[in-house]
Amino acid sequence: MMRRYVVRMIPLLATLAMLLGGAVTAHAALQPKIDNFFFLIDTSGSMGAEYQQTGKTKYQIALELAKRMNALIPELGYDGAVATLAPFEMVQPLQPYTEGGYSQSLGSLPSNVRYWFGNPTPLGKGLSELKASLPSPSKRTALILFSDGGNNKGPNPIPVAQGVYQEYGGNLCFHVVSLAETAKEQATLDAIAALSKCTLMVPYAVLKDDQEMKQFVQDVFYSDVVLDEDQDGVNDDQDRCPGTPRNVLVDVVGCPVDTDGDGVADYLDKCPGTPLDLKVDADGCPLPVTFNLNIEFDTDKADIRPQYRGELQKVADFIKSHPGTTAVVEGHTDASGSSDYNLKLSQRRADSVMDYLVDEFGVEPGRLSAKGYGETKPIASNDTKEGKQANRRVLVVISGGYKQK
Q1: Bridge-based pairing state of the strands 200-203 and 222-225
Q2: pLDDT tens figures, 105-122
Q3: From CA 66, how far away is CA 87, in angstroms rounded?
């Protein structure tokens, strides 16, 4: 059934805007309902008559309505055209719509049309001639007809409009802005509107209201669609973490939940429940305390020089003061020599540090182990002297002892 506009309550958002003394902006994206639209302005003789003692002709009122409507149409990528009917003239062919361009086309129309005896009103003929200018039936097209429904010359506009619908199918919608003054004229417009379920019929008296005009434009041209691209239940305009993977639990601002507050979201956290005071890695696991010992070894040697006693004292003191911890002494080399030899050399160096901690500082042997990695875990380039020196290193990794924030 066609949709006939009636005077109704102002929409909720508008009411709130007035109560608050300002505009209420809905956080939504505008999605076009159509691909093309035509303003069809009736310029027949009857449109040159004064409308209900307003001091303006029906044509002048139609032109004012068209200009007000144009000022409210959002630019959403559709094409627009302007044409007059009775007689038919294509004022602006279909082209990408802009408010400014459309305003110029409407401004090029005459300020009034002539009303004379006999009032020739060939509305049916104008609609028939329009068909040649319509786009492909595959495109969603809105025809917005500003007319009084008068027709006293040429074919009956109702079967002509019906023929247009039959050719263009469900993608075409006539929307009628009525300036009819007689029951016969209104019946003609009603019959045209009744040809399609998508039609909007709105009398001029309704569109005088700004809110009704805005509603008409929205009903014809666009939908308010609140976007939630990552489908996490939080609208994009409020989502501080866009792009969250599907089915991930999020908080009220759209960010993945981080129950233990370690900075790693639950869905990525391999160590849930980490205490808040501990630093964690990218997997959410506590970072073990690591001593990077700046011990330099002579080439091909594993002996520990006396000047490194102070560094090893710190390691021993930490282990002994944290009874629940254990430690792994890691040995690493540069890439000089064969990989097999470097692996053995790194093990000797790790063993040497472990033995030093036991023999010199009394660390319990059962709390220590040694592991040589050879040249397999470089931290610098082996192509430079400085890089090789950095790679010849010993680490003591504490298990059960974690870095504090």
Answers
A1: unpaired
A2: 999 999 998 876 556 677
A3: 18
